[in-house]
Amino acid sequence: MALDKFVITGGNRLKGTVTISGAKNAALPVMAACLLGEEPNTIDGVPDLADTRHLADLLADLGARVERPAPGRVQIRVEDEGNVHAEYDRVRKMRASVCVLGPLLAKRKKARVAMPGGCQIGPRPIDLHLRGFRALGAEIELDGGDIVATAKKLRGAHVFLGGPFGSTVLGTANVMMAATLAEGQTIIESAACEPEVVDLADFLNAMGARISGAGSPRLVIDGVDRLGGAEHRLIPDRIEAGTFIIAAAMTNGEVALKNVRLDHLMAVVHKLREIGVNVEPSDGGAEVSSARHLEPTDVATYPYPGFPTDLQAQLMALLCLADGNSAITEKVFPDRFIHVAELLRMGANIRKEGPTAIVTGVKRLIGAPVMASDLRASAALVLAGLIARGTTTVSRVYHIDRGYERIETKLRSLGADIRRLSE
Length: 423
Ligand code: EPU
Prior knowledge:
Blueprint: E1 4-9, E2 15-19, H1 24-33, E3 41-44, H2 50-61, E4 64-70, E5 73-78, E6 85-86, H3 88-93, H4 101-108, E7 110-114, H5 127-135, E8 139-143, E9 146-150, E10 158-160, H6 169-180, E11 185-189, H7 195-207, E12 210-212, E13 218-222, E14 231-233, H8 238-250, E15 254-258, H9 266-275, E16 277-282, E17 285-290, E18 298-300, H10 312-319, E19 325-329, H11 338-345, E20 349-353, E21 356-360, E22 369-371, H12 375-387, E23 391-395, H13 398-401, H14 407-413, E24 417-422
Parallel strand pairs: 2-15, 3-14, 6-7, 10-11, 18-19, 22-23
Antiparallel strand pairs: 1-23, 1-24, 3-5, 4-5, 7-9, 8-9, 11-13, 12-13, 15-17, 16-17, 19-21, 20-21
Helix pairs in contact: 1-2, 1-7, 4-6, 5-6, 6-7, 8-10, 8-12, 10-12, 11-12
């Protein structure tokens, strides 16, 4: 793993046009879903990221042939169903590897997947995924740090998947995938409504599944005997789009975004308008400009359609420049605040109280060496660097590379002064 860093000289206004990639968090479950089918699949708009490569490697371990015949296009066909083990070394590197659990259990009747640990954004239990599998008739045990799930036959059931923080995105994806091949009807209540879940349901339906209600908290899945293959284009990455919108706003820039679904960003656009950022739809995309004067605001993250936790850190960087006090409350991952300490190193004024950060706007941020070991927190530091006086060095860029396709190239094309160096 190359330990690259970004060196950013702040102060340039972002101007121009940027094209948003396909959604990482749609790509991962959609790729995993290919384990369910009997025929080849073609997925377009797959971002070239550490995480999507990682999942491709895991699928190869599990007997799939994964090819990238053209940029953004991934073809997946299962050739050998002998292996059902997702090893700790894979799961440790990417927690989303757990999304092979549902497909393996449904198709191969057995799955052995290393239990993921916590990560920088806090504990990440998967009890809700397991509750769903058990309801479908699977037996689950823990053996040597692996979850071993087995089922002679999965049977449809009425499952409630809500947890202490509301719905679960990958839990919903996992149980929905398992239910596609179960006997009879499954109803998932308190299902996640994220656009990535809808994208997965669309893909599964194209493979021959019978899922309705995707995008609502109630999913109805009628089991089928077999799934084929499908061709599918992934939705645009709403978090990457939100990150670029905030970057434009912070630098007082004027940026046009292509390949954006503003209807997936309603809560974000609403909040940004309150702050003084203009975000307007334009032909297949969006245009962003901002007032020099940014208003403070209060915001809490929630499952979709609420304000996404994956943009909380970036919004915090923006609110560091607002004229007054803002309160940011994390309702999805209450410990997701590792960027606070790093932003303080850049002259921000932030006080944390439990799951809330009180941000008092400052006149300017000041460049500093910083690092954060979470993808979105690191992105927030890059944004802060774009506006900070002097030079900011963001270390351990591999976290950003997990989820942003060529972020420095895209930012440079908008006029940012950002370079990648090996550490
Ligand atoms: N939770 C449980 N039990 C479970 C599952 C989740 O208590 O079995 C809790 C979590 O601890 C958390 C909340 O429920 O407090 C929501 O977690 P969720 O399961 O929805 O998260 P996830 O599916 O593991 C996905 C994204 C994350 C994103 C969250 C929330 C992918 C691959 N990951 O994770 O994305 O933050 O939903 O929207 O889709 C990122 O891209 O940077 C990222 C972390």
